[in-house]
Amino acid sequence: MIRSDSALVDGRALRTALNDIAKSSDKSALRPAILAHLKDVMREGRRRAEEQLVAGGRGSACARRLSELQDQIIGAIHEIATTYVYPVQNPSAAERMAIVAVGGYGRGMLAPGSDVDLLFVLPYKQTPWGESVVEFVLYMLWDLGLKVGHATRNVDECIRLSGGDMTIRTAILEARFLWGDKKLFEELTHRFDLEVVKNTGPEFIAAKLAERDERHRRQGASRYLVEPNVKEGKGGLRDLHTLFWIAKYFYRVRSGDALVEAGVFSSAELALFRKAEDFLWSVRCHLHFLTGRAEERLSFDVQRDMAVRLGYTSHPGMKDVERFMKHYFLVAKDVGDLTMIFVAALEEEHAKSAPLLNRFFGIAPRRRLRKIPGSTDFVVEHDRINMASTDVFRRDPVNLIRIFQLADKHNLAFHPDAMKEVTRSLKLIDADLRENPEANRLFLELLASRNQPEIVLRRMNEAGVLGKFVPDFGKIVAMMQFNMYHHYTVDEHLIRSIGILSEIDRGERGQEHPLANSLISTLQDRTVLYVAMLLHDVAKGRPEDHSIAGARVARKLGPRLGLTAAQTETVAWLIENHLLMSMTAQSRDLGDRKTIQDFAAVVQSLERLKLLLILTIADIKAVGPGVWNGWKGQLLRTLYYETEPLLTGGHSQISRDKRVTAAKAELSHALHGWPEAERDAYLERHYPAYWLRVDLQRKIAHATLIREADRAGKTLATATAIRAFEAVTEITVFAPDHPRLLSMVAGACTAAGGNIVDAQIFTTTDGRAIDTIFIAREFETDEEETRRALKVSALIEEALSGLVALPEAIAKKAKPRAKIKAFTVETQILFDNSWSNQFTVIEASGLDRPGLLYDLTRSISDLNLNIASAHIATFGERAVDVFYVTDLMSRKVSNANREATIRKRLHQAFEGVPAVEKAPVRKAG
Questions:
Q1: 740, 806 contact by CB (below 8 A)
Q2: Which terminal residue of the chain, N or C, has fewer Cβ atoms less than 10 Å from its own Cβ?
Q3: In terms of domains, do 136 and 18 share one?
Q4: Can you give the residue ranges of the ACT domain (predicted)?
């Protein structure tokens, strides 16, 4: 057994100490005394292990030391059991046993929270003595607080079970003798090699690779998820373990050096393997020590502490935690490269059948070809592109770009040999190749392909070619953003956005985004859209605004790619304004004419409007699962349709009064079944803002709700509508006007678990309020969502009727999300009187929390402000709530002292400071 100078415990001293305890203790006191001593030894050993790790020790060394510590503890327990507790004077042939470490423990490496997997090997059958010894060892380990996976089997059982169970077979593959009868262990390993492993290499490899694929599917197919699983995730420790299992099984090697001798890895690649393994073990051990448990996921709430423990510091534009996570993702990428090289070696040995590597993307098998039209440097083998000779890249470096363009053009997967040679030829990508017109033409053709550019660009990125060919892209490879909004690293987000753009371009998913699908075929130049899509976040991680810096990158790169001056300027404009449409749609009142006019003034042309809409949709959808929804799509379509007439000269400059009159006439015609006197009276119940900002269908629904409430003599009524396409549920509240009305509605929604995404507030001429809120949809079926909407409506009515104490109800529901605590978001309260002709716009942004909207709206009411509309957006942990307000005289807020008071109170609302109760004051129309 390996022992290092920095071992955490002296095994001989430990056994001597336990022997002394055993000799001086009576039988009843022996076990507690032994246990107490072992607890001290284990506690001290782990303390030293953590101390050495924090001081800069290697992770793999820490894992080995912890395994050695465990070896000595088990050995000491075994010696006490067999010498003092259950001694045998004349053991029979059956009273023998070998204690064997299996699984991860068998590799001789343990994390602080790892399971201890043991196999008790018997000669042929269990005896009372053997049963007693096993029981004593296990109970001691359990009492030490260890998680122990164990099995007791004879050699025949081990061989029989491993023949039919791949998990048991893998465990025995890594078996390591600890204590007891070594001949039993040697018999087991000899028979295992002869009766199980021999001639079953391809079967084992296929099973392990299938197991890996399923594990990746469960954890998330991308290795660039921003909360990765260090052990089970793609690019994690388990992937390295899988490689080594296969190597030990197929090549029958016991060390990494033997893999070099077998020609699987070069010396440099083996060094990369060990470097990646060491880093991942460092992360895993730190993570277990930090959390005090077997935590394998690098969640947001531990990432910052992990960065500090591992010694990362902040740089301009990048936080310490972002630098740590970038390093993590680069290592995960290295693991992927090693996997590819290893699989190539296996194929050379014909260990497994050649697969269609793109099977996950549904690419159909192609007929077998030998030549690629127009190319003599590349051939096709088993539907995969490969080199015609090993010098194709040295002879013509443009081939480093051409191989990817040909793979996309002919719908081919990549042969591992070709990809291995690509990664070994990256030094050929220099300034000359970057400026080569043919290389840039091929790259642009690939980027704007109508096939599967996402798949090929991802392989190009993983091979290191994309970052070398476009150095500004290389700077954001593996870069993560420390927030809850973005689900992937920056480079993965950009490549996914290309994939979504390509789907729209091919006319797929038209039901999700019908307008974008119809517009993309009318674009004058689709190439600029693809270039802007690839580069829109390329300047992330810099001290300056990434939109402005990204536009500067585009102006430099465009001519190199072969774009004209006009194309380059369009790309730069799109990047500089790539957030404009999203922020306007989600955070501004689209019923306010000034919003549309200001937006149109920036966009200036219909072509830019089309480009910006499509880019915005693809950008949002590529952020991560669940970020895009139909409501955002509806807001973007509304903004597009409202802006289009201004850019095409089709907007009729009808006066406000005439537009109000036309809207009344439209509703009057729709209510033709009403008595004329009742209809005319109803038309006078709304102020001009209502007529200009509400669409006809909702006006009809409001009229029906108000009429039924009046006839029933009800002062309070609600109505719900399920808007499946927009993925929101609409709740309309008709109630006596009250300054706290929206606040109480927001509080009731919080207490009911409803997430408000938008709100419109109107007051009638007879002192009633008609408020409409939109909450995010929760259930898939309309029936379930309708039941939920009715429950929320009922709670709103109870709250407004005084039957529910909202602060208590919210307190029960509004428990802060654990992940939120990991983030700090600066609170910002912005005032702007130029965004609307009628209202002051307050944009309040800061750290999100349950009940925040309730506190903000209550504070605004306390400050004697009328809320005309509210627009609620959440970007991960960051809330951006925008309110269009006036004072009680329907005027904008223009006094500096008043602004300061409002700003201070809203800051307090973000901090959870209770609002001061105020007497009700009637809202103005």
A1: no
A2: N
A3: yes
A4: 730-812, 841-918
